[in-house]
Amino acid sequence: MSSTQHPSHPVSTGVPSDMKSQDLEADRREAGEVLTTNQGLAISDNQNSLRAGARGPTLLEDFILREKITHFDHERIPERVVHARGEGAHGYFEVYEPMSKLTRAAFLQDPAAKTPVFVRFSTVAGSRGSADTARDARGFAVKFYTSEGNFDLVGNNIPVFFIQDAIKFPDLVHALKPEPDSEMPQASSAHDTFWDFISLMPESTHMIMWVMSDRAIPRSHRMMEGFGVHTFRLVNAEGVSRFVKFHWKPVLGIHALAWDEAQQLAGRDPDFHRRDLWEAIDRGAYPEWELGLQVVEEADAEKLGFDLLDATKLIPENLVPVQKIGKLTLTQNTDNFFAETEQVAFHPGHLVPGIEFSNDPLLQGRLFSYTDTQLSRLGGPNFHEIPINRPRCPFHNNQRDGMHRQSIAIGRVAYEPNSLADGKPHEIEPALGGFASVAERMESPKIRARSPSFADHFSQARLFWVSQSLVEQDHIVLAFTFELSKVGVPAIRERMVRTLENVDPVLAGRVARGLGLKDHQATVRSTPLPEPEPSPQLSMLGSGDHSIRTRKIAILVADGVDGEAVERVRKALEAAGAVCKLVALTLGTVTSASGDALSVDHTLLTTPSVVFDAVFVPGGSHGLRACGDALRFVLEAYKHGKAIAASGDGLELLDEAGIPPETCPAGVVYQTGETLLADVAAQFIDAIGAHRHWQRCSQDAVPA
Ligand code: HDE
């Protein structure tokens, strides 16, 4: 089979050929016809081990049994110590314009070129099998297979980090992970050790504001931003170096789940984000992000008012705008999760000429950690030969041997300088493509100390708070209240509320009330808190173009349903790019009022409202009114702020669920006597485009 004919990689989709995928072709294995051992011996009986008599003991001689069981016994490798839960996909990156003014990186020069990428999204705290929708930062790691070697942009969906120095990372992670005596709780920061650490580490305040915001419960990985977090450098061919922050901007906008929805999804569909990405790519709705840069001239770095080397700080976009320079498109799911997603090894030190580090002490520590961790995770120093990690460009050096070496290095020369191999492989000067570090002048004492420019821990936490809409602030208050209510030690709860006083007294007061801290007094300050200019880009509200592309809509149906309403509304939604699914009491078909058979996609038994973005209840489906699952379906959709539409007597189901039309709730569309189905569809599309009608979510009285 030729490389372009692999069954899961059709060439007819209009997708440009993915060169990394072609590179992997030699490693793909079809199932084959005859079952053999790993040595190629054909197997005649895969049902019975070799025994001394049918009821006797198994013989040690049974090499077929031993090979099979031994391999099975060693199928697992250590999961990632952080970011264990994740999913990956292939795609490509295109730059819009040559970026030679800023960088000599070859993959950022040619708008006609497509650089293959592999991307892995992850949560941080949970184990490999944990639920996708935990409240957590998300990893956003991109491997670019460039002509000059692999470049890895190993970022998160939050632009800042908890700590300023890598030496605190093991402490942070030990506090966050399940507590070591009980191994509880799984994939959750809502426990004593985490908040003990956070409340004792003021530098974590900015990041914790982000983690308590809806950024930490994305609707989809396709709808979240990515950030390189640290300050990097771009270096051009003249050797001019500038500071840069990397951003990924999702074309579909930035959207979040409701917290109650996220918790339910953890049980109803723990693979929610993985499934969402897989299905979108599978049906050709390729996820896209634009790569953005914030560039700061070295001479201007001091004028920012904070230290660019401090990973707890971001550059507000109203101070330095993000220039979009290219687009990432994911086009292909993996063939094999283990071979690709589990074995991919990212490293912030995988660089190409023209991109460099800064002295951020967090980044500097990461440069050590990522190779080191692969040694225990992937079993030795040859993990770069694993197909998913192998650069696409040639690579030659004199490293030899080690566990699991695949390549067969030819010849007797494995050293440099040499004359026996004509001096090859040899160095190459920077002008011809060799990597050379920026010659930064260093004259400093050897010292263990934090720069005084890292001392302000609250200004940007406050900037984040004041930049949020009221609804987003409400969600932050609720998240703090939720998490701290799960903390058993009162002193930790109180200490955290005191930390929040430094961000905003109203925030601290509301959380204190939520925690039942009746004696809480606002801190008396000699100087008032600063009043930063809000930075609109820090708010998620209003993000995106109100498009409903790729949104999942449930249409609740039962026998007798108004088939015309189903088809007209479905057509309009699908024309706008949404995905519609018919949900009924059982699988099979339902019969419409006019006698047509409509195919059911899901049942109310298996598929709750939390896996959808909106719900349409056409008239005629009377059988649903007596069904508790159907009532719960619409009530939950209502509680979670989702768009709901009803046509004909479909509104009776809503009424039955306690959603009365006369209150005209936001985002609920009813067909009244005069409204045409086309108008219902148009209003419904508008309501879905608003993503969530958050004002409804605060109605605690709704029992869903
Ligand atoms: Fe990581 N991090 N990290 N990290 N990180 C890992 O590397 C580490 C940090 C990030 O999908 C590990 O291969 C240290 C910041 C992502 O495979 C490990 C420090 C950011 C991923 C590691 C940090 C990240 C990791 C575990 C503080 C955002 C998943 C497995 C100095 C910019 C990559 C692995 C994937 C994974 C160490 C802080 C992002 C142990 C020591 C800041 C997206 O090497």
From TrEMBL:
Annotated GO biological process: hydrogen peroxide catabolic process; response to oxidative stress
Record-annotated membrane-spanning stretches: none
InterPro entries recorded: Catalase, Catalase_clade2, Catalase_clade2_helical, Catalase_core, Catalase_haem_BS, Catalase_immune_responsive, Catalase_large_C, Catalase_sf
Requisite cofactors: heme
Basic and acidic residues biased stretches: 20-30
Active site, UniProt feature: 83, 156
Family: Belongs to the catalase family. HPII subfamily.
Protein name listed in UniProt: Catalase
Source organism (scientific name): Chitinimonas arctica
